[in-house]
Amino acid sequence: MLLSPQAERNWEDLCSVLEEVLEDQSPRKLFALELGSGTGQHVIRFAQKIPFVTWQPSDIKEEYRDSIKAYIDATQAKTVLQPIFLDASEPWEKWAGLSRNSCDVIIAIKLLQYSSFKTAQGVFSGAGQLLKQNGLLITHGVFAVNGIITPSCNEHLDEELRKLNPEWGLPDIDVLRQQAYGNGLRLERMIEMEDYYKCLIFRKL
Ligand SMILES: C[S@@+](CC[C@H](N)C(=O)[O-])C[C@H]1O[C@@H](n2cnc3c(N)ncnc32)[C@H](O)[C@@H]1O
């Protein structure tokens, strides 16, 4: 079981956002796909707090999928499915056989800043196909706005990410908004979180 200190710090705030945006949906049974799940700490906590959702974790890396499996075993989580390999930069037809209009929620936590623009394109085009009408795409991270990154700690984060991989870096909210628009989604809300992080809530029209 891998441990991410940041996931341990921010799961509660993320849970509150999910509880709030899904409030009017319970007691309907929902299906949520998590992209780039990482260690599995988030999905396990979400499942414990939000039991009316079936959670499908996924990651591109085997070590993370193994960690998610270990969390599922350790917590005996009944509403978390076994993790699947999913490369979000690939076309949705390659997303582990998931079908069109099958998801109520797709969530990507800190994925977009740690991946290429091709992944952002994949996330929005996949969400456009997999989400049901009125379904939600929730992306959490640090973002640029109109090409501008503030404050200086975020500029520094962007530089550090680009040093790690020139294709990484803070995505621009306006570019994401255009991606959303092109795929039948619209940016409905921006929720400010700790440390200049935001949750962007997109709805499928
Ligand atoms: C910064 S970590 C965030 C992990 C987790 N969501 C969290 O917040 O703790 C980024 C995650 O995205 C995954 N990832 C990177 N590129 C991906 C891609 N193209 N498709 C799916 N997952 C990807 C990585 O393996 C990693 O688990």
Could you give the topology of this structure?
Blueprint: H1 5-21, E1 30-35, H2 41-49, E2 53-56, E3 58-59, H3 62-75, E4 84-85, E5 103-109, H4 117-130, E6 131-141, H5 152-164, H6 173-182, E7 185-192, E8 198-204
Parallel strand pairs: 1-2, 1-5, 3-4, 5-6
Antiparallel strand pairs: 6-8, 7-8
Helix pairs in contact: 1-2, 4-6
The chain binds S-adenosylmethionine.
Instruction: Work out the helicity level.
Output: 25-40%
Classify the beta-strand content into a percent band.
15-25%
**What would CATH call the architecture?**
3-Layer(aba) Sandwich
Distance between the termini: 38 Å
- Helical segment count: 6
The ligands found in this model are:
S-adenosylmethionine
Question: How would you characterize the overall build of this protein?
Answer:
With 205 residues, this protein is of the alpha/beta class. It has a single domain, classed as Vaccinia Virus protein VP39 (Rossmann fold). Helices cover 38% and strands 23% of the residues. It has helices at residues 5-21, 41-49, 62-75, 117-130, 152-164, 173-182; strands at 30-35, 53-56, 58-59, 84-85, 103-109, 131-141, 185-192, 198-204. The strands form 2 sheets. The protein has a 6-stranded mixed beta sheet, with helices on both faces. Strands 3-4 form a two-stranded parallel sheet. It is globular, with a radius of gyration of 16 Å. It starts with a helix and ends with a strand. The structure holds S-adenosylmethionine. S-adenosylmethionine is lined by residues 4, 7, 35-39, 42, 59-61, 64, 86-89, 109-111, 114-115, 119. It comes from Austrofundulus limnaeus. Belongs to the UPF0585 family. This is UPF0585 protein C16orf13 homolog B-like.
